[in-house]
Design a protein that fits this description.
It is built from four helices and ten strands. The protein has 158 residues and is of the alpha+beta class. The protein folds into two domains: 61 residues, no CATH class; 88 residues, no CATH class. The strands form five sheets. It has a two-stranded parallel sheet. 11% of the residues are buried. It binds zinc ion (2 copies). One zinc ion binds next to helix 2.
Protein backbone atom coordinates (compact mmCIF):
# COMPACT_ATOMS: atom_id res chain seq x y z
CA UNK A 1 0.00 0.00 0.00
CA UNK A 2 3.05 2.27 0.04
CA UNK A 3 2.51 3.69 -3.44
CA UNK A 4 -1.10 4.56 -2.84
CA UNK A 5 -1.83 8.12 -3.70
CA UNK A 6 -4.80 10.02 -2.45
CA UNK A 7 -6.14 12.55 -4.89
CA UNK A 8 -9.22 14.64 -4.82
CA UNK A 9 -11.44 14.21 -7.79
CA UNK A 10 -11.03 17.73 -9.12
CA UNK A 11 -7.27 17.26 -9.33
CA UNK A 12 -7.42 14.27 -11.58
CA UNK A 13 -10.53 14.95 -13.60
CA UNK A 14 -8.38 15.86 -16.59
CA UNK A 15 -5.60 13.31 -16.40
CA UNK A 16 -5.37 10.19 -18.46
CA UNK A 17 -6.34 7.24 -16.38
CA UNK A 18 -3.60 4.84 -17.44
CA UNK A 19 -1.37 6.08 -14.68
CA UNK A 20 -0.48 9.26 -12.86
CA UNK A 21 3.13 10.24 -12.26
CA UNK A 22 4.07 6.61 -12.76
CA UNK A 23 1.55 5.33 -10.26
CA UNK A 24 -0.82 2.71 -11.72
CA UNK A 25 -4.40 3.87 -11.84
CA UNK A 26 -5.59 1.11 -9.53
CA UNK A 27 -3.50 2.62 -6.79
CA UNK A 28 -4.94 6.06 -7.22
CA UNK A 29 -7.78 6.66 -4.87
CA UNK A 30 -10.35 9.03 -6.15
CA UNK A 31 -12.08 11.74 -4.18
CA UNK A 32 -10.88 10.65 -0.80
CA UNK A 33 -13.57 12.65 0.94
CA UNK A 34 -16.32 10.14 0.18
CA UNK A 35 -14.22 7.01 -0.07
CA UNK A 36 -14.58 4.16 2.29
CA UNK A 37 -12.31 1.19 2.83
CA UNK A 38 -13.72 -2.30 2.68
CA UNK A 39 -12.80 -4.27 5.79
CA UNK A 40 -12.55 -7.46 3.81
CA UNK A 41 -10.67 -6.68 0.61
CA UNK A 42 -9.07 -3.45 1.92
CA UNK A 43 -9.89 -1.64 -1.30
CA UNK A 44 -11.28 1.85 -1.39
CA UNK A 45 -14.58 2.48 -3.12
CA UNK A 46 -17.06 5.34 -3.26
CA UNK A 47 -19.37 5.25 -0.29
CA UNK A 48 -22.39 4.14 -2.29
CA UNK A 49 -20.56 0.92 -3.16
CA UNK A 50 -21.39 -0.14 0.38
CA UNK A 51 -24.95 -1.27 0.93
CA UNK A 52 -27.09 0.59 3.44
CA UNK A 53 -27.39 -1.34 6.68
CA UNK A 54 -29.51 1.12 8.60
CA UNK A 55 -30.98 4.56 8.08
CA UNK A 56 -31.76 6.91 10.93
CA UNK A 57 -32.99 10.50 10.79
CA UNK A 58 -29.50 11.90 11.06
CA UNK A 59 -27.28 9.27 9.51
CA UNK A 60 -27.05 6.50 6.99
CA UNK A 61 -25.07 3.51 8.18
CA UNK A 62 -23.40 1.44 5.54
CA UNK A 63 -22.02 -2.05 5.61
CA UNK A 64 -18.34 -2.66 6.25
CA UNK A 65 -18.17 -4.97 3.29
CA UNK A 66 -18.07 -3.49 -0.20
CA UNK A 67 -20.75 -4.59 -2.63
CA UNK A 68 -18.39 -7.01 -4.35
CA UNK A 69 -17.28 -8.77 -1.18
CA UNK A 70 -20.87 -8.84 0.01
CA UNK A 71 -22.07 -10.51 -3.18
CA UNK A 72 -19.22 -12.97 -3.03
CA UNK A 73 -19.95 -14.11 0.52
CA UNK A 74 -23.64 -14.27 -0.26
CA UNK A 75 -22.98 -16.53 -3.24
CA UNK A 76 -20.82 -18.82 -1.12
CA UNK A 77 -23.52 -18.91 1.54
CA UNK A 78 -26.26 -19.81 -0.93
CA UNK A 79 -24.01 -22.51 -2.35
CA UNK A 80 -23.55 -23.89 1.16
CA UNK A 81 -27.30 -23.87 1.74
CA UNK A 82 -27.90 -25.83 -1.42
CA UNK A 83 -25.29 -28.35 -0.39
CA UNK A 84 -26.91 -28.71 3.03
CA UNK A 85 -30.33 -29.20 1.42
CA UNK A 86 -28.98 -31.82 -0.96
CA UNK A 87 -27.27 -33.85 1.73
CA UNK A 88 -30.43 -33.61 3.84
CA UNK A 89 -32.43 -35.07 0.94
CA UNK A 90 -29.83 -37.75 0.30
CA UNK A 91 -29.74 -38.87 3.93
CA UNK A 92 -33.47 -39.30 4.09
CA UNK A 93 -34.27 -40.48 0.60
CA UNK A 94 -37.81 -40.77 -0.67
CA UNK A 95 -40.02 -41.77 2.25
CA UNK A 96 -42.17 -43.83 -0.12
CA UNK A 97 -39.78 -45.65 -2.47
CA UNK A 98 -36.31 -44.98 -1.03
CA UNK A 99 -34.70 -43.23 -3.99
CA UNK A 100 -31.73 -41.15 -2.73
CA UNK A 101 -30.64 -39.04 -5.70
CA UNK A 102 -31.24 -35.44 -4.57
CA UNK A 103 -31.87 -34.38 -8.16
CA UNK A 104 -35.26 -36.10 -8.13
CA UNK A 105 -36.14 -35.43 -4.51
CA UNK A 106 -38.69 -32.81 -3.51
CA UNK A 107 -39.99 -31.42 -0.28
CA UNK A 108 -43.65 -32.24 0.11
CA UNK A 109 -45.53 -30.20 2.70
CA UNK A 110 -47.32 -32.65 4.95
CA UNK A 111 -49.88 -30.03 5.78
CA UNK A 112 -50.62 -27.44 3.12
CA UNK A 113 -52.25 -25.09 5.61
CA UNK A 114 -49.00 -24.24 7.42
CA UNK A 115 -46.98 -23.91 4.23
CA UNK A 116 -45.23 -20.56 3.98
CA UNK A 117 -43.15 -21.13 0.88
CA UNK A 118 -41.88 -23.92 -1.33
CA UNK A 119 -38.30 -25.09 -0.72
CA UNK A 120 -37.54 -25.82 -4.36
CA UNK A 121 -36.76 -22.33 -5.55
CA UNK A 122 -36.10 -20.87 -2.15
CA UNK A 123 -35.86 -17.16 -2.04
CA UNK A 124 -32.46 -15.66 -1.55
CA UNK A 125 -33.90 -13.14 0.87
CA UNK A 126 -35.18 -15.87 3.15
CA UNK A 127 -32.74 -16.62 5.95
CA UNK A 128 -31.41 -20.12 6.35
CA UNK A 129 -33.18 -20.48 9.68
CA UNK A 130 -36.51 -19.97 7.89
CA UNK A 131 -35.62 -22.54 5.26
CA UNK A 132 -34.82 -25.12 7.92
CA UNK A 133 -38.06 -24.36 9.74
CA UNK A 134 -39.96 -24.87 6.52
CA UNK A 135 -38.15 -28.13 5.78
CA UNK A 136 -39.28 -29.43 9.18
CA UNK A 137 -42.84 -29.31 7.89
CA UNK A 138 -41.98 -31.42 4.88
CA UNK A 139 -41.53 -34.99 3.86
CA UNK A 140 -38.73 -35.84 1.44
CA UNK A 141 -40.29 -37.51 -1.54
CA UNK A 142 -39.20 -38.24 -5.10
CA UNK A 143 -40.84 -36.60 -8.11
CA UNK A 144 -42.74 -39.76 -9.07
CA UNK A 145 -44.12 -40.42 -5.62
CA UNK A 146 -44.84 -36.74 -5.25
CA UNK A 147 -47.05 -36.82 -8.30
CA UNK A 148 -48.86 -39.87 -7.04
CA UNK A 149 -49.44 -38.28 -3.63
CA UNK A 150 -50.96 -35.19 -5.19
CA UNK A 151 -53.00 -37.25 -7.60
CA UNK A 152 -54.44 -39.32 -4.77
CA UNK A 153 -55.15 -36.23 -2.70
CA UNK A 154 -57.15 -34.84 -5.62
CA UNK A 155 -59.00 -38.12 -6.10
CA UNK A 156 -59.96 -38.11 -2.46
CA UNK A 157 -61.38 -34.66 -2.93
CA UNK A 158 -58.81 -32.94 -0.75
ZN1 LIG B 1 -14.41 -5.55 -0.42
ZN1 LIG C 1 -40.40 -42.11 -4.37
Amino acid sequence: MSSVLFLHEHLISNINFGSYKGIPKDDIILGMSNQKQCRYCYKYYPENTFGVALTTVSKVYRRRKCRYCYQKTKRILIQRHYEWINSYKQERGCTRCGVTNPVVLDFHHKNETNKRFGIGGFRREVGFQKIQEEIEKCEVICANCHRIVHHEAKKNGA
